[in-house]
């Protein structure tokens, strides 16, 4: 599969926290860095996501916000 999004980061699913309608999927991309995405429970099932399985974090955004404390 090819995607137009430039930011495709390969990693490993380390946690799936299911809620009523959405799941928080955590993907470790190396060096202890974990990205988290909120996707529907249906998408988790359709993609057959499982902890320990390889997956890609695909990021497509027009803006990136940065803040400091």
From TrEMBL:
Keyword S-adenosyl-L-methionine carried by entry: no
Keywords: Molybdenum
InterPro entries on file: Mo/tungstate-bd_C_term_dom (IPR008995), Mop_domain (IPR004606), Transp-assoc_OB_typ1 (IPR005116)
Domain of life: Bacteria
Any Pfam family hit: TOBE
Protein name from the UniProt record: Transporter
Segments forming domain Mop: 2-68
Gene Ontology biological process: molybdate ion transport
Organism: Acetobacter peroxydans
């Amino acid at each position: 599969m090819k995607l137009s999004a430039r930011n495709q980061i390969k990693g490993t699913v380390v946690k799936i926290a299911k809620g009523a309608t959405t799941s928080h999927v955590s993907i470790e991309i190396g060096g202890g860095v974990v990205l988290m995405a909120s996707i529907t429970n249906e998408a988790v099932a359709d993609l057959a996501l499982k902890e320990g399985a390889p997956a890609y974090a695909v990021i497509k955004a027009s803006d990136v916000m940065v803040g400091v404390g």
